[in-house]
Design a protein that fits this description.
11 strands; Dihydrodipicolinate Reductase, domain 2; seven-stranded parallel β-sheet; four-stranded mixed β-sheet
Amino acid sequence: MATNIKQPTGKLGVLLPGMGAVATTVIAGVYAVNKGISKPIGSTTQMGTIRLGKRTENRTPLIKDFVPLTNIKDIVFGGWDIFEDNMFQSATNAGVLDRYLLEQLKPELEAIKPMKAVFNKKYITKIDGPNVKTGANKMDLAEQVRQDIRDFKAKNNCDRLVMVWTGSTEIYIQESEVHQTIASLEEGLRNNHDDIPPSMIYAYAAIKEGVPYANGAPNLSADVPAMIQLAKENNVPICGKDFKTGQTLMKTIVAPGLKVRSLGIAGWFSTNILGNRDGEVLDDPNSFKSKEVSKLGVIESILEPEKHPDLYKDLYHKVRINYYPPHGDNKEGWDNIDIFGWLGYKMQIKIDFLCRDSILAAPLVLDLAIFLDLASRSNMSGIQEWLSFFFKSPQTKVGLNPIHDIFKQEMKMLNTLRHLKGEELITHLGLDYED
């Protein structure tokens, strides 16, 4: 039975805390697509297809033609940043997109100027900027963000809003007592508790305003009991954490393949070099700790060494990230994988992924905004595990281990869409040729 999905009428406002390389790349990209300059390569919502029914039926529409998604021509962008640069200036400084493309989009990009950000150098030590809010306490700052959200919606005549964190990685913070209940979190906001970073203030403000929230960094953000409870009470969908872009994307593709072939892995060494603002932030060991925890859990979750001790119990997994300014946004992810096969004979796999960090992240921001809006219009609230496909460290309900295998994640995502439309779920378990 199909879900009653509200139609995407009017404009969708997409709010982005952190308007640097990733944010400007997605904004410029959407404008370029809308002008017919380029195609939305890498976007599941725009270019992905979905099989319906039996294989013999040959029903494979575009996802955007199957479920009622917001048209990207109806999206309005806004957000916050610690620098005052408009989006043309910010995109030019980021150096991701070539100047010829940006010049074609200059009027639209110059029109978007960031609101003052919630920022505290204690949580991101390597950068600083002047465009920052001040307030009596963290609750006051949250109320200012809530007012920003309301003002943006009214000013831009938006019917609906979503928020996607595209800011930097904050220092590593463990879940503590202040995060357990809504009451303790709000008390912590009033008392400037150290375990409430800026990303959590944005998440709180969004959820209180009924705005769906996605966390694109490994920060705790909305991944604490109080936020989950608040999201359920306010009927708001949330998801995270940490966009799955370069090296981790490759791991979630390669590791499942080795596992299904019952090939052993003795070691997996990963190192990255990148020179954008993200690389500069991650040069701080405390920020790197947040990223390291996010990246390390992927392999172990996919391989399940406790269930396959002969193949993976002694696996040595190491991750390194190094700031290297000459590379800019062009990240290089290098992997050395020591594997063993029949009778324990050793082999190796080397992967050198010369990728563009923001080019890989931008379509994820767009897809998450559009799918979260769909979830909201479908009356879905709380953690949206079906969106794990987009994250390194997917947020799951308490007691559940996250699914990291990208192929299982895709099946869950597509089956969720089929469910929403009342189509038969596809499990590939049929016993005849028409399954």
